[in-house]
Input
Amino acid sequence: MQVEPARRRTPPGAMVTSSLLAVTNDLSGETSLALAAIKLEGFVNIRRTVLVVPLALAVLSSAACSTGGGSPTSTDAAGVVAPAENGDTPKTADDVTNTLGAKIATLKLIKTYTAEDDPNHLLGRPNGYSSKTAFGDSRVKSDDVEYLKEDAVERGGSVEVFSTEEAAKARMDFIQAVAKGLPAVGEYDYVKGGVLVRVSRFLTPDQAKQYQVALGS
Output
């Protein structure tokens, strides 16, 4: 009797790696180089399997992608940019988070990062943000974020403040570009001035919309 050789099961991580390589191949120039420097920001639970998933955490130079003037520009359903107000000076991430919390009762500040504990190594660095916070949102179901770190974006979101709107939009565009190839790390992103508000994909579109309204974008 001939015995068939056991079928080799493809590790879930290999599929994620394959998807990431596909995204890298679709991106060009500065984007591909930035993707190589991605840092881990959390864990994603896919079909009850815990996978380490790279997130888009590098900032492109402002020259790589600039914003247009006039009415708000929508990159897709998850990324929205509002024109900065004249003379608008970016506040700190703490200020922005507190302002959002005053309008969204389910928001709770989780962490204010320093240059020493910033997981992306972008805080205060060239082309990086000047301040960053992580916040939770009680509307996110605990089962969806069971294996995530306390400060993971999926638990609520994050605020990152850049010196210019162009830098904030470049960061958003990069995150959105990678998310198109890796839906499991998708998120809602809103930009106003130099402020980027990143919101958990586990919130419904209507719930996430509250952050856009609260930001004024």
In short: The mean pLDDT is 73. The beta strands are 40-46, 49-54, 73-74, 79-82, 107-112, 131-137, 156-161, 187-192, 195-200. The longest helix spans residues 165-181.
